TrEMBL record:
<feature type="binding site">
    <location>
        <position position="259"/>
    </location>
    <ligand>
        <name>iminosuccinate</name>
    </ligand>
</feature>
<keyword id="KW-0662">Pyridine nucleotide biosynthesis</keyword>
<dbReference type="GO" id="GO:0051539">
    <property type="term" value="F:4 iron, 4 sulfur cluster binding"/>
</dbReference>
<keyword id="KW-0963">Cytoplasm</keyword>
<feature type="binding site">
    <location>
        <position position="216"/>
    </location>
    <ligand>
        <name>[4Fe-4S] cluster</name>
    </ligand>
</feature>
<comment type="function">
    <text>Catalyzes the condensation of iminoaspartate with dihydroxyacetone phosphate to form quinolinate.</text>
</comment>
<dbReference type="InterPro" id="IPR023066">
    <property type="entry name" value="Quinolinate_synth_type2"/>
</dbReference>
<feature type="binding site">
    <location>
        <begin position="156"/>
        <end position="158"/>
    </location>
    <ligand>
        <name>iminosuccinate</name>
    </ligand>
</feature>
<feature type="binding site">
    <location>
        <position position="130"/>
    </location>
    <ligand>
        <name>[4Fe-4S] cluster</name>
    </ligand>
</feature>
<keyword id="KW-0808">Transferase</keyword>
<protein>
    <recommendedName>
        <fullName>Quinolinate synthase</fullName>
        <ecNumber>2.5.1.72</ecNumber>
    </recommendedName>
</protein>
<feature type="binding site">
    <location>
        <position position="85"/>
    </location>
    <ligand>
        <name>iminosuccinate</name>
    </ligand>
</feature>
<feature type="binding site">
    <location>
        <begin position="242"/>
        <end position="244"/>
    </location>
    <ligand>
        <name>iminosuccinate</name>
    </ligand>
</feature>
<feature type="binding site">
    <location>
        <position position="173"/>
    </location>
    <ligand>
        <name>iminosuccinate</name>
    </ligand>
</feature>
<comment type="pathway">
    <text>Cofactor biosynthesis; NAD(+) biosynthesis; quinolinate from iminoaspartate: step 1/1.</text>
</comment>
<dbReference type="InterPro" id="IPR003473">
    <property type="entry name" value="NadA"/>
</dbReference>
<comment type="similarity">
    <text>Belongs to the quinolinate synthase family. Type 2 subfamily.</text>
</comment>
Amino acid sequence: MRDKIFSPSELERHYDLAPSPALAAEMADLYAKMDRVVSPPDWAIHAPYVAAINKLKKERNAVILAHNYMTPDIYHGIADFVGDSLQLAIKATEVEADVIVQCGVHFMAETSKILNPSKTVLIPDMEAGCSLAESITAEGVAKMRAQYPGAPVVTYVNTTAEVKAASDICCTSSNAAQIVAAMESDTVIMTPDKYLAQNIAKQVPQKRIVWWDGACIVHERYTAKDIADYREWNPDTRIIAHPECPPDVVAEADFSGSTSGILDYVHREKPAKAMLVTECSMASNIADELPEVDFVGPCNMCPYMKKITLEKVLWSLHTMSGAVEVEAEVAGKARVAVQRMIDLSRDLGL
Ligand code: 13P
Ligand code: SF4
């Protein structure tokens, strides 16, 4: 059956979605987690959606898995589990509810479906893509294999199921160095993020790493000069960069890690000033937990992640639209590559 076309007016017929200061006040406990970054009038707009989604979630026996790049209203208001790509993939294997709503991008929903195929996996906006996932196809992987015969293909999870299916093992930013180091071959092919590959090559010098020419449109915007200038103007700022940034940007940073690695670092270190060189919502999501930290720097948003909104989550759960399907043979092969990553990460104690 085809999905119904998104209709805000249909939602309004079924739910009372008018801004409600009264409901906002009733849900003050949730608001306390984001009141440093969400204004009271905005919370009065969000509160009816948050209430409706949390009620509907129970009726549908659904759980919401949300990436660290979601906005605070989603991250704190409706998510059952938040995390980085590896944590979300592992969590997807453990879900017992009937429905998973993936608040993130399409490849994340596909990964959940691949790992837990009996569940209905919904993505609230099918257009929530990723520049890395769009940069390579299974033919691209075959081309790399032909160029470097015998070299294993380590593929970032930010890819389609077809690309995962054509790969030997997956990785995320939190386990890429260890996964690459564990490969038996001297040469390792990494797809599709050239910057992640170049950053990992520095950490694993014993391997010859060759890469596909893909990049994340959010992280490639940062330059080493911007970071160096920022440090000169604000010498006491702790600079923390995601490894999807170019290597000269990572070299300017005090720490680099996956999104959850970054959150853990800031929680642990509590610097007076921090610049998170990654997607903008990360700082907003922990601003209330860490009032002692002043988050500074530019706000680069991922246009794909930002397609996921409370309104679309409600629509998706209301109509059960946005179900992600992966063809069985592709899913089977992709599952092997993703499961290998999960098993190896566990064996390595990651
Ligand atoms: P991680 O959460 O695994 O660090 O990934 C970042 C990212 O860009 C996801 O799209
Ligand atoms: Fe893809 Fe970059 Fe957006 Fe992550 S932040 S979904 S890697 S475009």
